[in-house]
Structures are given as C-alpha cells and as structure tokens.
Design brief:
Chain A: It is a peripheral membrane protein. The complex is a heterodimer of chains A (955) and B (183). With 955 residues, chain A is an alpha+beta fold. Chain A is 55% helix and 10% strand. Chain A has 45 helices and 15 strands. In chain A, a hairpin with a 2-residue loop joins β1 and β2 (252-253). By secondary structure, chain B is α+β, with helices and mostly antiparallel strands. Residues 143-161 and 168-183 of chain B have low confidence and may be disordered. In chain B, the strands form two sheets. In chain B, strands 2-1-5-4-3 form a five-stranded antiparallel beta sheet, sandwiched between helices. In chain B, strands 6-7 form a two-stranded antiparallel sheet. Chain B has a single domain (3-147), classed as 2-Layer Sandwich (Beta-Lactamase). In chain B, a hairpin with a 2-residue loop joins β4 (54-61) and β5. The chains are: A alpha+beta (955), B alpha+beta (183). Chains A and B meet through α1, α3, α5, α7 and α10 of A and β2, β3, α2, α3 and α4 of B.
C-alpha cells in the first residue's frame, strides 16, 4: 500500500515536480524553476506570516530544486524555523533541508545547534533520532564541538531507547571520523564495548561500527572487544537460520553483523586466550563448511550474503596468517569460485587469492590454480576481471613458474586492453628480472616485450635492461647478438633501436668476429633506422657511432662521412647538430688513447632497487620514477644551470636518465664531480635536451683518475669554455633538507663549486667529511671556510677535503652554519650554507613489540609531547621509498604494529650528552587525498616539534 | 561507505547521499564521472570496479542504478546486499516501488535511507524495524487540511514507461493516470 495515501502529500510540490518533468527543454526547466524561486522568495518575504505547512512545502520545493543541480541561496532561515515546529513532518523536512544544504553561516549554525539541543533533551525518541541523524549527516566541526560530549552519554545511558542508541552510536562514529580530537575517551568507552552483548541485534549492528573505528585508533583500550566479538560471532554462526527472525536475510543469519564482527577482529592479532582462539577457529571452520553445503535458496541474495561472510572470514584468516590448515582451505574454496558462473565471485576470488599468494603457508596452494587463472586472463569478458587475473599471476609467480607465467603474459599482451598494457609490460619486466636464472632468457623476454608492446615500454624498462646487460658480462655477447637479430626486422620499434644502439655501441665488438655482423654491417643496420627515429633516439645513435669509432677504427671514415654530411652537421635540431660537430671533431683530433679513455666501456651501475618496481607500485601515477631518484636527478644536473632545471621539471622521466648514469663514483670516498661540465661546458651537460645524451656515459665515463688534467686541457682547448656565472649567495635550505634522511651526497653545486658530504654518526657523536670541488679550470684563491683552516688555494679541477667532528650536547633545532669565501677570477664569492646536522642524526633505533609501542605511545599523551602535521605529498607515495626514508631517519621501522598496514610507525632514542630522548613516530599516508598525517611523540616537546617540521618536508 | 548515488538509465541523478565532506563542485564531478563509467558497462559485467582509490559497487534495478562507493577494506558482496535491502525497504513502503515514486517522494526515500544507513554504516538491518520507525513517524503527521483529500500519490503519475524496481507490474497494480514522461 502506498504510504503517500497516508495524507502528508504536498500537492503543490507534486504539481511542481510534474511541471518540471514535463518541460521539453533545459531552458523551459530553468524558466519554470526561476518562476518558482521568485514565487517562493515573495512568499518568504511577504507580510503575511506563512503557516507551517506552506513553509514546509516551499522548503521542500527548494530542496528539490537544489537536488536537480541548481544553486539555492535562500530559505535556510525558514528551514531552521521548521526545526522548532512541534509538528513532526515540518521538523523532519527542516532537518532534511539542513542535512542536504549545509551552510556554515555561523549565525544559523548556532540556531541549528540550539534546535538540535532541544530535540536531544526532549526525551521523545523520534525527535532525538531526527536530531542525531542530522548531526550524523552534517558531521561538521561546529556540531562536534557542541555535541561530542553529550552523545556518548546518550549512547550508554541505561534508559535510552534502542533506536536512539543505534543513531547515537553511528552519529558518534561520524563525529569521531571528522574530529577525532573532540571525541574524548572516558568512562563511557568500556560501556560501549559491552554493547556487543546487547540483546537488541540492531544496537549491536550499529555499535560495532563505532567500536571497530575506535579500536583501530586505540587498540589497547578496546582489547576486551575481541572475546565479546568472538562469542557473539559464535552464537550467530551456530544459530539455525530462523533463530534470529528478522535479522535473518534470505536464510543467512545476521550477515551484516557477522561481517562487521569479522572485520572488527581484523583489527587485532589472533586471541591469546586459548579458549577464545579455539572458539574463533571453530567459527571460521563452520563458515568454511557452510560454503560447501547446498544453498538454502536459489536467490542470489542468499549466496551473496553467505559469501560476504565467507570472504570476510577469509580476510581474517589471511590477516592472522598463522593457521596453515585454514589458509589452505580458504585457498581451495577460492579455487572453486574461480570457475563459478557468477562474475562477481570470480572477481572477488581472484582478488582475495592475490593476498593468499603472499602467505608462505598458502603460496603453494595458490600456485595449483595457475591454469585456471591463465584461462581467466584469456577468456574473461570483463576487463576488470582480467586485470585481477593478471594481478594474481603476478602475485603467484616464483622461480618455478616464472617462465610459464611470463610467456602467458607476453602472449596476452598481444591482445590486451589498452588500459592495462602499460602495467602488464611493467609486470613482465619485473618478473623477468626477478626470476631470471639465465640472463639470456631475461634479454629475450625484454626484447619480446619491446617487439610486442613497444609503445607501452616505458623508459624505465629499457634503461633497466641496459643496466643489467652492462653489469653482467656473461650476457653481453648474447645481448649484442640478439639485439642485432631483432634489428633485422623491417619494422622495429623505436625502443628497440635505442636498446640496439646502446648495446651495439658498448658490446658490438663481441659479435664483430662473425662476418655476418661485422662492424660495418652493424653500423649500416643501425644507420638504416636512423631516419625513421625521433630526435632523442637519433642523438643516442650518434653517440653509438662515436663509440663505434673507438671500438672499430675501420669504421672511422664511414662514420665521419655520415657525421660530416649536411643532414647531420647542419641539422636544424641544435642538439643533433652539436653532437655531429663535436663527435666529428673529437674523432679527428683526439688521439686513439684519448678516444679510448673518453669512450671506454660504461662502468657497472650501482645495484639498487629496480626503478621499474617503483613505477609499478604507483601504477599510473604521475612521475615515472621513484621519489628518491627524482630528487637525485633534480639535484645532480639541476644546478648546472637554470635551463636544465626547467627541462627536468617538465619531463620527469628524464631525471631517471641522469640519475642512472651519473651515479657511479670512481672511488668510494671521492665525490663524483660531474666532470663533463667542464669537459663540455657548452654542449652535453648544459644543453642536453634529451635523456639519451648521457646514456652513453660521457659524463660518468670521464676518467677522473686517468690524467684528468691533460685530457681536460686538451678538450678545453678544443671546445671553447663558457663563461662562469656570477657568484651565488644565500643560505641553501633545499640542500639541507635533502640530508634529513641520508648522510651522503651533494650538498651544494653551482657552476664553480661542488660541495659533497659524507657523514657518520654513532651515539651522540658524528664525523663529517666535506669535499670542496673546484669545477672550473682556474684556481680558487683565498679559499676559507668558517669550520676550520683549509688550504687557501684550490686548483682547477681539484678537490679539498675537510673533516669535522660533531658532538651533540643537548637537543637543538638550528643547524650550524657554514660560510665559504673564495676568489674566482678576481671576484669574491661568498656562500652560506646550513650544515646538514639535524637532531635525528643522533637516533638509536629501538625495536619494540606492538604492545610496548602502544604502551609508550600512551605514556606520552600530554598535548605538548605530541606534534602533528597534515600535509600534502610532495613526491609520489611509494611505500618502498617511504620505508627507505624512514630508515634513513635513523629510527627503527616497526612492522605489524599499526593495525592499518598502510601506516608506518617508528621508534628511536635520541642520544645527546645531557640526556636520552625517546621518540615515537607515526605516518599515515592517505593515497586518495595525496596527503599525509605525521604524528610524533617525544619525551621532550621541542624534539617532537622539530622532527615534525623536518620530516614534513621529506615526503 | 563514502556515498550512495541513484541514477536513471538516462544518467539523471535521483538520489545522492554523501557520508564524507565534499564540496558541491567535487560532488558534481564525481557524479558525472561515475554515472558515465557505470552506464558504459555491459549488463553481464561484474558489479564491482576500482575507481580512484575506492571500490564501486553497483546494481541496476529496472530503470535505476544504485551505486555505492566503499573503501578498500569494505566488503563488496555485503554492500551489494545493502543496496538490495534498501530497494526492498522502498518497495515495501511504496508498494512495488518504481522510479517515479522516488522522484515524487524523494524526501521519503531519504528518510528511509537515514533509518537504514547512518554515517555510511548499517544502522538497522531488520526490515521490520526500519519500516516500523517510518510508520511511527507517519502516524505522527497530521492530515493537512489544505489538500489532503486530493493529494495525488506518487504512483498517480506512473506511466507505462516506468517499471517497478523489483516486481514486474501486475494487472491489479494501481496505475491510475498516465502522463507523458520526459526524462
């Protein structure tokens, strides 16, 4: 029976709505709305006092207009008036209007809060519920301030009606989510936990959401909920399908409550009490057993509700990760779902299995489903399901099945949806690298990848293959041969040309013995692709050519011929032209010795985490490199001149190139002065518009130890030197902040001077090595620093070193200043820098258990002991990078402490001569908002504050 | 749950409920984007999709799409049944609910939702209890002297284009007047 016949119909509203619906065009609709708005406005402004009914009707019309997507800028006052009406429907409409059109007008908020207060104290449950709904819907800070104290009282009062309790619980949850600081724990907390025992299932259902949220933030305080939740769950699971009456949903007893109970238990580790644990395991087994029973109804609601509980139970089993038997059973159950006719179940099973694959107990069990998953990847019709299948294959991959999985993924790539290709490419690249036993398979795989999906092969992928080939001499010959063969294809992808150019340029000699791939054949093959390539690739090829001249002197004349032709030497692209000119000159002037040194084989790259992995973690996020590398790259080349900084900012992927190639330092202690900047002052290092310019290692291969002065002077003679820029002054804060989480690196660099730092700390002591490198070819005179005396003459290209000892006496905020003065070409240079000595350098990491951590956390609960900051992410939010930074901070990174695995917690003790200062840290990333919340607690307030300031600049 | 949207096959928003604070502009943007994404999906596809950092759970009932955004750790299947229970509640209250009931009695749709879900969490899952609460509220309302006797019901505006969300229309259904819809 339609409720509307009950007599509250507002005819005027219904007529208005049907008028709107009858409008034939948007314009007609707007006209009708404006007419109505004018009418309502005049009624509200009119002399005649409106009765409650009319007010309600007009407010309702305004609401309807707003919900159609139009702006409403009046009527709020009338809605507020309705709140204090004693007629229920009028009050109800008033509240609805307020809930939907929140207005932060302070005058109104006060009135609204007043009305709410009246209703809350009315002792009329219906009115109280209305008021609570309104607070829950608006959830503003003002409301939290007004009611966060009152609602807990209503919630636990003995005489509160059940329906009011339910609303109060969820209302409090909303306030806690928006303003956690205003909802204070107290005597009510323990009573809230006991709502889990409440007779009324609805009260339990509502209260448990609140308890779950509160437990996540204060696990210790709510610990008792575990055993209560287990016994409640056990009663539900073992009840017959009719026991719970209206809380049974399609023959499934209390599915929502069961899911929420299982979810609450996931906030805690497995119960320590054997009896409780036994009971819980029994519940989980029963849930798994029920999945095998024939369905009690054919309705999809029945199976959905039942499986919702099952998936939540599996999530709990995975969370505990300690019951091999349950894990394997869960895996088998999911295995059955993989072939279920319901797409939804297949999707969820694939998703859930992904997490199972990472457990040591169930990894093998997951692997048995490989054929089904491969089949899903091939045959699922919904791309989101295929995506899950690809994720699962990636997760279940290990050494034993890598070849099969990689082969399947490669063949899937040929037809894969465009939306997931890039991610697939990254996954294949990572698996191939991670599980490569023989590197020829790895090289084959990556070249296949480029062949099949070249457009989706990002720079990281092909950089990485080059890194690996350079670092492993057992695969270099094979790589050269394979890439040579791949280049034979009439149409090969540009990325293939890049890899080919690079590898043949380095290792072409390894296959040159075979007449079919003689030097000239190699060169002709590469050059046949030249005209079809983009500028960066051509630039790379030119570098490959000069490398060829060194590798194969017999190709010299041919290549010089090519370089000399107008299309190169007069190329309209300045980069290409410059390279052609310089390489031509270099090849004709430099002696073979010099050529051999300048163009020698690339030194091995330092081993580091694959940048591809970092990229995959961010999937389609912006900025293709990990934050650390990004930072490195920006600094390395960034200060050479402003133009390059802009370059790199606009094309983030290029930074990878420079960080990739400039990293290797000739000796462990020496700073890697970027020698190119005075070898080629006007060309490569400064005007490099493409990442490939440096890929051939002209920068880093420049031999520091092998007579740099003679080589330098020769080249400086060949290429005229660019004039130095004016002096730089001012405190360099940027450089300083980069050292909060690391100890070594370049503190400062301009065209004249590079300052590198290496430092080590133990207890409250530290030692810092400073390296001052003269980047010019002219000596610096009167060189002095404020730290300690130093040789006043710094020769061109030379480096002086200073060692300072540091002792931390007590905690501090300001860093020591370093002043540097010298004369360069008669001009006085004055430089002021902050020494990167920060309080965190004196951290001793402290490992502790979750229990200890929270105990200490609670001990440090005075407001001044805590510093908190919420800030926007400055770098891509990559877990590995975050971890590395937090470790670099000097604290211990504690696993399995925070119930939310996305969060990081750390602990450490700062050692000063005067005292030891304990610090706890919690970092909560919010990937969606790209924000962090950083909380520090320390026994000393200044320390928490300072650390918070320092750290908030790091992420 | 972060929000719930009801929209028609034509992409018209019929009900929106937000459980997180967002500006009107953001709400409009999200709505536009999601309506487009969901409407583009084919019938047999899975009811869940990843969208930004959220999981979207949606289901179509006759001409209406019900679409919920939940967080990463939330349960997709139980959310699907939240949608169903809400549809059942509407159906029971309006008696064979159809899209037009929700258009003409949008305030009722909101009231029922508030009794069922509060702050994005299930408050009361018993159908009987929710309806009892709504009926009690209805009892409190006084018959308006102005136009009660001629107040049309939402169903009065039913047309042959509009179909019931759950049941197929039956012969004895109370379709009184038909009127052209312009959606």
């Amino acid at each position: 029976m339609p409720a509307v016949s009950k007599g509250d119909g507002m005819r005027g509203l219904a007529v208005f709505i049907s008028d709107i619906r009858n409008c034939k065009s948007k314009e007609a609709e707007i006209k009708r709305i404006n007419k109505e708005l004018a009418n309502i406005r005049s009624k509200f402004k009119g002399d005649k006092a409106l009765d409650g009914y009319s007010k309600k009707k007009y407010v309702c019309k305004l609401l309807f207009i707003f919900l159609l997507g139009h702006d409403i800028d009046f009527g709020h006052m009338e809605a507020v008036n309705l709140l204090s009406s004693n007629k229920y429907t009028e009050k109800q409409i008033g509240y609805l209007f307020i809930s939907v059109l929140v207005n932060s007008n302070s005058e109104l908020i006060r009135l609204i809060n007043n009305a709410i207060k009246n209703d809350l104290s009315s002792r009329n449950p219906t009115f109280m519920c209305l008021a609570l709904h309104c607070i829950a819907n608006v959830g503003s800070r003002e409301m939290a301030e007004a009611f966060a104290g009152e609602i807990p009282r209503i919630l636990v009062a003995g005489d509160t009606m059940d329906s009011v309790k339910q609303s109060a619980a969820l209302c409090l949850l909303r306030l806690y989510k928006t303003s956690p600081d205003l909802v204070l724990m107290g005597e009510w907390t323990s009573r809230v936990v006991h709502l889990l025992n409440d007779q009324h299932m609805g009260v339990v259902t509502a209260a448990i959401s609140l308890i779950t949220c509160l437990s996540q933030k204060n696990p210790d305080e709510f610990k008792t909920c575990v055993s209560l939740a287990v016994s409640r769950l056990s009663r539900i699971v073992s009840s017959a399908s009719t026991d719970l009456q209206d809380y049974t949903y399609y023959f499934v007893p209390a599915p929502w409550l069961s899911c929420k109970l299982l979810r609450l238990l996931q906030c805690y580790p497995p119960p320590e009490d054997g009896a409780v644990k036994g009971r819980l395991v029994e519940c989980l087994e029963t849930i798994l057993n029920k999945a095998q029973e024939p369905p009690k109804s054919k309705k999809v609601q029945h199976s959905n509700a039942k499986n919702a509980i099952l998936f939540e139970a599996i999530a709990l089993i995975i969370h505990y990760d300690s019951e091999p038997n349950l894990l394997v059973r869960a895996c088998n159950q999911l295995g059955q779902f993989l072939q279920h006719r319901e797409t939804n179940l297949r999707y969820l099973a694939l998703e859930s299995m992904c997490t199972l694959a990472s457990s040591e107990f169930s990894h093998e069990a997951v692997k048995t489903h490989i054929e089904t998953v491969i089949n899903a990847l091939k045959t699922e019709r919904d791309v989101s399901v295929r995506q899950r299948a690809a994720d699962l294959l990636y997760a279940m991959c290990d050494r034993s099945n890598a070849k099969q999985i990689v082969a399947e993924m490669l063949s899937y790539l040929e037809t894969a949806d465009y939306s997931i290709r890039e991610e697939m490419v990254l996954k294949v690249a990572i698996l191939a690298e991670k599980y490569a036993v023989d590197y020829s398979w790895y090289v084959d795989t990556i070249l296949n990848l480029i062949r099949i999906a070249g457009d989706y092969v990002s720079e990281e992928v092909w950089y990485r293959v080059i890194q690996i080939v350079i670092n492993r001499d057992d695969v270099q010959g094979y790589a050269a041969k394979t890439v040579f063969e791949a280049l034979q294809a009439p149409a090969c992808h540009e990325n293939m040309v890049k890899v080919g150019g690079y590898i043949l340029g380095e290792f072409g000699n390894l296959i040159a013995g075979d007449p079919r791939s003689s030097p000239l054949v190699q060169f002709n093959l590469l050059h046949s692709k030249f005209h079809l390539c983009s500028v960066p690739t051509r630039a790379l090829l030119l570098s490959a050519y000069i490398k060829f001249i060194n590798l194969f002197p017999e190709t010299k004349s041919t290549i010089q011929e090519v370089l000399r032709c107008d299309s190169q030497i007069r190329n309209s692209d300045v980069e290409l032209q410059q390279r052609a000119v310089e390489y031509l000159k270099l090849s004709s002037i430099a002696s073979t010795d010099v050529l051999a040194t300048v163009l020698e084989e690339m030194p091995p790259f330092p081993e580091r985490e694959s940048s591809i992995l970092a990229k995959l973690k961010k999937k389609k996020g912006p900025g293709a490199v990990s934050a650390g590398e990004l930072e490195e790259g920006k600094r390395e080349g960034g200060e050479v001149n402003g133009w390059e900084v802009n370059q790199q900012k606009s094309e983030p992927s290029q930074e990878n190139a420079s960080s990739l190639t400039t990293s290797p330092s000739p000796t462990p202690t020496a700073m890697h002065l970027s020698l190119t900047s005075f070898f080629f002052p006007s060309s490569l290092s400064q005007s490099t518009p493409s990442p490939s310019a440096d890929l051939l290692g002209l920068r880093s291969a420049a031999p520091v130890s092998a007579a740099p002065v003679s080589a330098g002077s020769l080249l400086v003679d060949v290429f005229s030197e660019a004039g130095p820029a004016a002096s730089t002054a001012g405190v360099n804060d940027d450089g300083f902040l980069r050292f909060v989480c690391k100890n070594n690196g370049v503190l400062f660099e301009n065209q004249l001077l590079q300052i590198g730092i290496k430092s080590e700390y133990r207890q409250n002591l530290g030692r810092m090595y400073l390296f001052y490198g003269n980047k010019t070819s002219v000596q610096f005179v009167s060189f002095s620093t404020t730290l300690k005396p130093v040789d006043p003459l710094v020769e061109g290209g030379a480096q002086v070193q200073q060692v300072i000892n540091i002792e931390c006496l007590s905690d501090f905020s300001d860093a020591p200043l370093l002043n540097i003065k010298f004369r360069y070409g008669g001009a006085l240079q004055n430089l002021s820098l902050k020494l990167p000595v920060t309080i965190n350098k004196f951290f001793q990491p402290t490992e502790m258990s979750s229990h200890d951590f929270f105990q200490r956390w609670k001990q440090l609960s005075q407001p001044q002991q805590e510093a908190q900051k919420i800030f926007k992410a400055n770098h891509p939010m990559d877990t590995e990078v975050l971890k590395a930074k937090l470790l670099g901070l000097g604290t211990a990174l504690l696993d399995n402490v925070d119930p939310n695995p996305e969060n990081f917690v750390c602990a450490g003790v700062i050692q000063t001569k005067a005292q030891q200062i304990g610090c706890l840290l919690r970092l909560e990333p919010n990937a969606q908002a790209q924000m962090y919340r950083l909380t520090l607690r320390s026994s000393k307030d200044t320390v928490a504050k300072r650390l918070c300031e320092l750290l908030s600049e790091q992420f | 749950m972060q929000f719930m949207l009801l929209f028609s096959r034509q992409g018209k928003l019929r009900l929106q409920k937000w459980y997180v604070p967002l500006s009107d502009k953001e709400k409009k943007k999200i709505t536009r984007e999601l309506v487009q994404t969901v409407l583009a999906r084919k019938p047999k596809m899975c009811s869940f999709l990843e969208w930004r950092d959220l999981k979207i759970v949606y289901k179509r009932y006759a001409s209406l799409y019900f679409c919920c955004a939940i967080e990463d750790q939330d349960n997709e299947l139980i959310t699907l049944e939240i949608i169903h229970r809400y549809v059942e509640l509407l159906d029971k209250y309006f008696g064979s609910v159809c899209e037009l009931d929700i258009i003409f009695n949008f305030e009722k749709a909101y009231f029922i939702l508030d009794e069922f879900l509060l702050g994005g969490e299930a408050q009361e899952t018993s159908k009987k209890n929710v309806l009892k609460a709504i009926e009690q509220a209805d009892l409190l309302q006084e018959v308006s002297h102005h136009e009660a006797c001629i107040a049309p019901s939402g169903n009065a505006f039913l047309t042959q284009h509009s179909s019931f969300l759950i049941h197929e229309p039956t012969l004895n259904s109370h379709i009184l007047i038909t009127r052209n819809m312009c959606s």
